[in-house]
Every structure is written in structure tokens, then in C-alpha cells.
Amino acid sequence: MRPKIYLFGDSITEQSFGDGGWGASLANHFSRTVDVVLRGYSGYNTRWVLKALDRVFLVAESDDSDGAAEPLAITVFFGANDACLPDRYAAFQHVPLDEYKRNLHSIVSSFKKRWPKTLILLITPPPIDEDERLRHPYAENPSGLPERTNEAAGAYAKACVETAGECGIPVVDLWTRMQQFPDWRKAYLSDGLHLTEDGNKVVFEEVVKKLNDGGLSLEKLTVDLPRLADIDHSDPLKSFQ
Amino acid sequence: MRPKIYLFGDSITEQSFGDGGWGASLANHFSRTVDVVLRGYSGYNTRWVLKALDRVFLVAESDDSDGAAEPLAITVFFGANDACLPDRYAAFQHVPLDEYKRNLHSIVSSFKKRWPKTLILLITPPPIDEDERLRHPYAENPSGLPERTNEAAGAYAKACVETAGECGIPVVDLWTRMQQFPDWRKAYLSDGLHLTEDGNKVVFEEVVKKLNDGGLSLEKLTVDLPRLADIDHSDPLKSFQ
Questions:
Q1: Nearest CA to A75 among A19, A126, A5?
Q2: Which family does it belong to (chains A, B) (predicted)?
Q3: For a Cys-Cys bond, which of B28, B38, B188, B197 suits A17, CB 3.0-4.6 Å?
């Protein structure tokens, strides 16, 4: 049977199968070996998903009765909404920093308990381009102030990195990684928050690296049916007996 | 639990999660409602997959014990390799026309028996640009003759359309549909056989149309967790109780 990698997160995960998206690129990378399964929920924060965790992974849990469905890996990519400021128009999505960290711990613990062998990979929220956020509000915003700041996103990213350290699991520090490139605002963000194709490429490459580090490389995964290069041209059916 | 749509086919399916690919676009289209599961096998013809059908869908079959895993739909997209000419360099992939049709019938019958409610959607092979095939051989080809012709692909496409009629299931006649556009060779094919982004778009749009016709539209599918627009800003957790 073909194993799974879950992509669990907010809109940056939900949109990851759009053109050039990091989710689609992962599915393409693992096209013969792994099912890349999308569990992205636009607008969600860690408080909401924690309440809904059993509903999201109900099937996986029931599959576990035969021990077959433990995923190879799961990416956990929340924080961009938690980091909405509590006194701006997206305040209903805000989760205080200490609660965000506790929630991430709870999510990781839940997965560790359910799937002891699964590689759990945290991804921090991306950096924020505040000017672009003002140009792309998703609600009336007469205040003239952005609903997110890069500084706040950075605090949540730091808490995410700390959580990974405390849990002994890998993390992609996207907030730091993206800002290493001088033109990160235009190159990686389409609306000051969501990702361009180049931004998606960064996530894809960083996730592949961490999966490789965790032993989930193409070389180590097995195919369910032989590759064309391994089929004998003079007797193809030999491969299917 | 989230239902599945399987994409079952050859390289045109295996590559469908590349940039702008029709599989990724389907996964994006159904991002909150359906798992789009890739089962593409480059180079395969109907003879080989028929031998391997139980291995490809083993999991789904065992899942069936609880009646949970019957997919909503499955696309069956073979014929491009069957239509390789028997006296050219890719002869080992060739399957005679009458056997191709019999094999397609067997594949459809097997799915119908296993999953009586699943929408089975056949897709014909695309048209072939013979000049481009000569420029993109995948083996030594001193003959100066292409391994596929558009005429042969058309005969297999016709057999695929007939099979769909005989089985009472829908079909995307890609061979005919693509050639309705005068510049189809350049617009839709990247190497005379595989699809450009525009070619992928044609497949995506035609598949979505057929799924809609079969009742699998976004409007009729339910989400596992509420959309952001349906969450009460003054009491978000109400949605998660």
C-alpha cells in the first residue's frame, strides 16, 4: 500500500495545490511513492484546529486499527492567523502567543501519541509585508493599519521554532529563511502574506530537505509497481507475475 | 471522512501534478472536499495495468470491508502507449486495438464490481504531433519514423469512446477535443505527446465538466470543517463544538 504525507495548515497549505504550489510539487516529487494529502483550512488558527483535530484525522485514526495508515510525515503549518493583532480587523483569528505555543505542543503531542513513527515537521509562519497587507485587506479596514505585522509574525515564528526544539522535531523557519533574500517581499509574497510561485518553491525545497534528513528520500522509498526503466522490453509481463 | 477521486493512467497522469498539471488543478479545485489520489504509471499500457490492478487498488479494496472507501470517481486514462506502433522502437508497449478495447472493458468491469456507485470516467489518448515525436525520442531511433502516429492514436481514441458507450459511462474524447483548436500541436503538446500547461488546462476543464454532469460539483460536496465565511466572528468556537 502507498504511504501518506499529510499537509496540515491554514490557507498557505489549502492553496498549496495551485499553480506552482508547494503541495502539488511534493505530490509530483513523490508521484510514484507517496500520497500527499491536503488538509488545509483557510483562516484557521491553532485554537480552532485543536478543537477539530479528531474530525480532521478521524479516518486516519480509524485506519490505525490495522496499523496500516500511520503517515510517513505530517507538516504542521499554523501561526499566520494566530499572529493577527488583537486590536485590528482580523482580531477574531488572533490567539495569544503563549496559547499558540501551548496549542502547538498539544497538536504535536496528539500526533506523537497517535502515530509514534511519523515524522512531524513544523513550519513557521512566513514574514509579512505590511504595505501589501494594506493593499489586500479581506474585510473593511478604515483604520489604515495592517491586521498583521512582520514583528508579530516573527514572535510566533520564534515560538514555533522553540516548540520544535522542546518536542525534538524538525522545523522549517520560513520567517527567517525568506528574509535572507533581500527582495523577499516581492519575490516570495503575492499579497504580503500568501506565497508567489517562488515563495512556494522555497517551502517545497525546505520541506524536501527536512524529509530527506528524516530518511524520507526518493531513494529509500519503494514503488508499488516497477518503473518503465526496470521493465524487460523483450518480456514486459515478467514484471507483473 | 473525506472522499477520494483516483487518477489512474500512464505518464500523462503521473505527470499531472507538475506545474499547471490537471491533477494538481483538480486537487486545488476540491481542496476542502475531496482527496485527489494519483495512480499514474509512466509507459504503462492496458495490458500491464490489468495484470497489476489488484496491486494498485489493494488498499482501497481492503478499505471496502467497512464500505468507507468507495471513491467518488476514478479517471481511466490509457491508450497513448497501447497505440505505439508494433513495428517501431516502442513496440514493447504496443497492445493491439481489439485487445486494448477488451482490456478497457475488463478494467471498467472490475471497478464497477468493486465500487458500484463510483463515477468511472474514461479519457482517450491525446492527438500526436509526429514531427515533434521524432525530435523527442526516448530511445535510439535510427529509422527516422515516429513510434506513434496521430492516426493510430485516433483509432485507439475511437475504441475508447465506443467502450464508454458500451459500458454506459462518460468519456472525455481528448483526441477530438484538442484537434478542434487549429494550433493544437504547439498549444497543447510539449513533445508531441505530453501536455503543455494549456493542454493540462483542457484536460482539467473537461474532467470537471464530466464530474459536474455526474453530480460531483463543489456545490453538492460537503466540507469536513466550516469555511471561514461561515464562522461567527463574535464566537468562532461555536463552530467547533
A1: A5
A2: Belongs to the 'GDSL' lipolytic enzyme family.
A3: B28
Give the chain B residue nearest A229 (alpha carbons): B43
Decide if A96 touches B, using CB distance below 8 A. no
Residue A226: CB partners within 8 Å, gap ≥ 6?
A239
Q: Note the pLDDT tens digit of each residue in B173-215.
A: 999 999 999 999 999 999 999 999 999 999 999 999 999 999 9
Distance CA A6, CA B158 (A): 39
ipTM of the complex: 0.95
Residues 6+ apart with CB under 8 A from B176: B124, B157
Q: For chain A, give the number of residues.
A: 241
For residue range A93-150, what is the model confidence (pLDDT) as tens digits? 999 999 999 999 999 999 999 999 999 999 999 999 999 999 998 888 888 999 999 9
All structural domains of chain B: 4-240 (3.40.50.1110)
Spatial contact of A148 and A133, defined as CB atoms under 8 Å apart:
yes
User: How many alpha carbons lie under 13 Å from residue A241 in its C-beta half-sphere?
Assistant: 5
